[in-house]
Design goal:
By secondary structure, the protein is α+β, with helices and mostly antiparallel strands. 36% of the residues lie in helices and 9% in strands.
C-alpha cells in the first residue's frame, strides 16, 4: 500500500466523513474569516482568506486511534481539541521530534 493509500484508509476509518466518503474538514466561521481577511489584507496588501482544512475527528478516542495508526506508518501526530468547535471535535497536529530545533531558535552554524 502506498503512503497516500494508507492515509486514505486511516482517514476513512477514523475521521468524520461526508455522504461521499471523504473527510469533513474544519472551516472558520464568518467572524474569524472577516478577522483573518482584515489581518492578511493589512499585512500582505491583498485578500487571502480561507479555511485551514484540518480533518475533523468526532472524539478524542477516534483522533488517538488515527494517531496510533499514523505512528505505525511512520508519522508522529497527537490529538488536540478544536478551539472553534461547538460540538467538541478534535484535530491532529505534528508531534515534535527529538533532535529537531525549536521554532525561533537559529539552526546550528547560523547563530548571529
Amino acid at each position: 500500500m502506498t503512503g497516500r493509500e494508507t492515509t486514505v484508509a486511516i482517514l476513512a476509518r477514523h475521521a468524520r466523513l461526508n455522504r461521499h466518503g471523504t473527510p469533513i474538514r474544519c472551516q472558520p466561521g464568518a467572524e474569524e474569516l472577516r478577522e483573518r481577511r482584515e489581518h492578511v489584507t493589512a499585512r500582505v496588501g491583498r485578500e487571502r482568506p480561507g479555511a485551514d482544512w484540518k480533518v475533523i475527528y468526532d472524539s478524542r478516542a477516534e483522533a488517538e486511534a488515527a494517531a496510533a495508526e499514523f505512528a505505525a506508518a511512520g508519522h508522529r501526530f497527537r490529538p488536540y481539541p478544536c478551539a472553534r468547535s461547538r460540538s467538541g471535535h478534535y484535530h491532529l497536529t505534528t508531534e515534535p521530534v527529538a533532535g529537531h530545533r525549536e521554532a525561533g531558535r537559529p539552526a546550528p552554524g547560523k547563530e548571529r
